[in-house]
Amino acid sequence: MKNNETSSLQPRENILFTALKLFAAQGLARTTVRQIAKEAAVNVSAISYYFGDKNGLYRAAFTEAMPCPVDDIKTFNQSDLNLEQTLNILFNGFIEPLKQSELVKLCIRLHMRELIEPTGLWSEMINNDIAPRRQTLLLALQKHLGLSEVDDDLHRLAMSIVAMGVHLFVGRDVIESVCPQIIDSEQGLDDTHAALVRFATSMVEAEATRRKAMRA
User: Fold this and answer.
1) Band of the pLDDT at 201, cuts 50, 70, 90?
2) Cα dihedral 198, 203, 208, 212 sign
3) What is the pLDDT, as a whole number, of residue 80?
4) pLDDT at 4 (0 to 100)
5) Any idea which fold 3-63 has?
6) Where in the chain is the domain with CATH 1.10.357.10?
7) Residue 216 has pLDDT above 90, yes or no
8) How far apart, in whole angstroms, are the C-alpha atoms of residue 106 and residue 64?
9) DSSP assignment of the chain, as one string?
10) Where in the chain is the domain with CATH 1.10.10.60?
11) Which residues contact 149 (CB under 8 A, 6 or more apart)?
């Protein structure tokens, strides 16, 4: 989504995208409803109609704007997935949003700002989205490795796997500087997706080998 495309958006989307840009650049406290209304070329009453108040608009910008493959969220919670399917869905949640470059950059900036200027929404995201996904990954790893319980090393393995996807977001500027070809096209992103699944599978296999050697 480009900045000059806001005029073609529906009113609610226009307000949401405009607010996302301003919140990402200035934060919640320094952005006013009147400023958002002016930038979006709408009446202040339109913001109240769609979002209630500034906090409601901020919540929507934080939780709704990031493109997310909805079907994958539902599928990811299924208990009958094998390891490869779980990893594919996990990394799809990182890769697909990157195909909407401008929007994702703004969402990442807002999420990073939330970390240093917390409003409580990051904690909600951890509890409602991140933690359940992590638990699903842990259960898939536990099943694949044949473990009776989730131990600390399994948490470390899950953390390392997820970190590869997270780096695509938080390390985006570095990637664009040193190897932009791996994320600057759909083909590049699809190849990166496949590579992440391959690398994560190798990590799991290495952990399985380590645990087997410890039992010997």
Assistant:
1) very high
2) positive
3) 76
4) 46
5) Arc Repressor Mutant, subunit A (1.10.10)
6) 67-215
7) no
8) 12
9) --GGGGGGS-HHHHHHHHHHHHHHHH-STT--HHHHHHHHT--HHHHHHHHSSHHHHHHHHHHHSS---HHHHHHHT-TT--HHHHHHHHHHHHHHHHTSHHHHHHHHHHHHHHHHS--SHHHHHIIIIIHHHHHHHHHHHHHHHT-SS--HHHHHHHHHHHHHHHHHHHTHHHHHHH-GGGTSSHHHHHHHHHHHHHHHHHHHHHHHHHHHHHH-
10) 3-63
11) 142
pLDDT at 1: 42
Q: Following CA atoms 27, 32, 36, 39 in sequence, which dihedral angle do they give, to the nearest 10 degrees?
A: -100
pTM for this one?
A: 0.81
Instruction: Compare 101 and 58 and report the one with higher pLDDT.
Output: 58
CATH second-level architecture of 67-215? Orthogonal Bundle (1.10)
